[in-house]
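Appendix B. Chain record.
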Amino acid sequence: MSATETEAPPIAGLGPAMATVESPAPARRTLGVGSPKSKTRRRAWYRWVSPLVLLVIWQLTHVFKLIDPNKLPPPSMVVTTAYNLAVHPIPAFGSLQAALLASVERFAMGFAAGGAIAVLLALSAGLSRIGDAAIDPLAQMIRMLPLFGLVPVFIVWFGIGQLPKVILVGLAAAVPLYLNLYAGIRSIDGRLYELGRVLGLTRKERLLNIVLPGAMPQALVGLRQSLGTAWLALVVAEQVNASTGLGAMIDQAENFLRNDVIFVALAVYTLLGLLTDAIVRAIERRAMAWRTDLVAA
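Structure tokens predicted for this chain:
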């Protein structure tokens, strides 16, 4: 009898061979394979490699005097200018904090309004034939309009205050979110709706348990796209008769030929965009945790 076998007490009607059972084999350890969380952390660090390489190359253009710093200020100069704008505001440009708060306020107002309208329209068009016939053609028409060509129209309609800037940001956020959420709803397998009816689910239960989970992947893609287009629209909107905000700082810096200030504002826009995108990616990892096994290591 081997070391892994134990002798069971005799059982009536069973031979000695049937009375022998094997003890479970010891669990094997898999060496050299990290946990999913450690892999996720490593992949997160990998995403910083290319930006850091780009910054190093950019700084080297200044070290070796390859490019005029007045045309392309190096990262060290951009950081110094950002510090000066934050700690010792320049009267012509104002403080970096005030400009940042004004831009974030416009973005939040526009994105909240545009995102809410996009979700309502997508649900109405995606779940109803009448809504589809009434809403989707208009949405497709708006999608074809040149967004930044509407700036002078908005100025004529709404003046040069805060409202046209918020509307432009909201429109830029609404279009990609609507298109992706609408496509996600329409791509849900019709047999799932039929299963919900067979199970006796109410309309609200079908929405929460079938529609929203089924459209979630496409909706998150649309959310990331809408965040990017909304920040882009804000850059343009704030350069049109704005007295505060990062766009107004860019406009003033252009008049004074201060490319370093322009790059500070652009860098802040970029960091804000990356921050909002990272938030959506974190939401996606939690909401779509069932897809982590499909992601290549």
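Further analysis of this model is presented in Appendix C.
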